[in-house]
What does this fold into?
Amino acid sequence: MTEMIRDLELYVAGEWLGAQGRRIEEVINPATGETIARLPHATQADLDRALTAAGAAFDRWKDVSVYERAKILRQAAGLLRERIEALALAMTLEQGKTIGESRIELMGAADIFEATAEEACRAYGRIVPTRQSGWRQTVLKQPIGVVAAFTPWNFPALIPARKIASSLAAGCTCIIKPSEETPATTLALAAALHDAGLPAGVLNVVCGIPAEVSAQLIASPVVRKVSFTGSVPVGRHIAALAAAGVKRCTLELGGHAPVLVFGDANLDAAVRLSVASKFRNAGQVCVSPTRFLIERSVYGKFTDAFVEAVRALRCGPGTDPQSQMGPLINARRVSAMQKLIADARERGATVAIGGEAPTRSGFFHQPTVLTDLPDDAQIMHDEPFGPVALMIPFDTEAEALRRANELPFGLAAYLFTTNADRVIRLSEQIESGMLGVNTFQIATPETPFGGVKDSGYGSEGGVEGIDAYLTTKFVAQAPSS
It folds into this structure.
């Protein structure tokens, strides 16, 4: 399998571009620290070629029937499903998540291709009633143009699939830069689309030094839409680059998701679902539950059960089918976990379980639970983006709501209660782009995914995801005589 991803290629203007004449970056297996692939960086000329190809292809692709565009996306989805075992192994090798998680993610990417294809067929305009007889007022939805998309390493299939599928289904062309740490999976999406008959130039995949690639692509007058998923600081920079050209931008940035657990909740289900969600992908998930706000009457029971469930987790290489949590993506993430935990300890927090980076090859960290957390601990304010859960008691609903909303993030939040009136109240008052009530399943191909406050703006998925790649044109037609 490593031979399949050893020599990666860029995808520009319908052609695969190899290492010759290009800078090379090594792709590392986070479970072992070993090099598994060699990735070429796009040259300035490659980026210019991608821009030219995407611009020329847009003039043709926007006029292709939406049903033909949808057909290609559906065929690509079928190819992804046929190739799932090989692609899941490649994803696990480059990203570290368990092989089961990789399979689920790839199936999700195929579902996104299909669901987005269907949604595009329903991207209707409308006829507006007129004030004068004989007039016609029409609202048209049209593709915005060439898209520059930038995606992170934690979900190398799902996140690119959202941006690629929405771009292509809406009639836009796309230049996407995946993370240089997990490029093989995104390139596999491109290969499926290529094999499904996608015309040259409609999709281009480039890699390189992020700041250089983003600056060149976003500054180009060819690009009319920017979509970015990543950290808040980088998102602010991307937004500023896009604003200089008055270009529409979708940003999905960081989170620090609160989980409100009330005493009337089904605690057994809440614990089981919380542990599974918290340590999925080793906590490297933008919507990962992190701040567990627990009503004091059940705080001890919930925390004890949570710790015992964590104790039973099996951590190891993602290629081991027995593993329930794999490594972090790189050494920097391990170091970040250690610094946050050390800071919390110094300020009085208790490590209920975990807290250490085991001595072994790869970038592993123990699943960790912290209690007795002071408000000034850094981890209470900065997204850990790792396998650390914070246990915080509260006494009243008002206190829980205040604590849930006190950070500048607003991507995801979760609520566990059986009180229907409370669900209505908190659904309206919790400041987040997404809310899960008695569930952590808040992302499907058919529904909008996005945040508020510092977590960004705009949505991907559902009708909102397609609309982000369309412009609105109003046509007023008077009688000819």
Observations:
- The chain has a mean pLDDT of 96.
- The chain has two domains: 2-253+455-474, 257-445.
- The chain has 15 helices and 20 strands.
- Residues 2-253+455-474 form a domain with the Aldehyde Dehydrogenase; Chain A, domain 1 fold (CATH 3.40.605.10).
